[in-house]
Amino acid sequence: MSHQVTVSEAAARPTVVVAATTTWREFPAVWPGLLDEVWGCLRAAGIDRGCRNVMLYLDDVPNVEVGVALDRPGPLTGRVTASALPAGPVATTVHRGSYAGLGAAHQAVADWCAAHDRTPAGPRWEVYGPHHDDPAEVWTEVHWLLHHMG
């Protein structure tokens, strides 16, 4: 699949997340529980839809924040905290199809950065479209924060 990469200026987007330090090998088994914690907190506050799932990778350790984009306040419990997706210049692509292909989308952004002499700042994140049982209907935004030019 070919991924078109665009650059834009992103505003900070409020999120509600559980933060964790993990390994890339462990992450696939860890993130569902983190997301379940966030949704449990939201459901207890009467919020059961309208929030897009997000995964923010702060670095390559990875230190991660898993949760949802949420632009309204709500009571937070347990390990669930308020945070935000970063603001600044971002390189973005949209991946369509199975989540198994997200690595190719990230690689496309990395390749674009190298080809256009843009330096990633470190944080990168995924914003998921609505759930769909048909993988062909699934889409995910992949964003990489860039260093400012000049």
TrEMBL record:
It comes from the Bacteria. Signal peptide: none annotated. Gene3D superfamilies: Regulatory factor, effector binding domain. Pfam families: GyrI-like. Residues 3-147 form the AraC effector-binding domain. This is AraC effector-binding domain-containing protein.
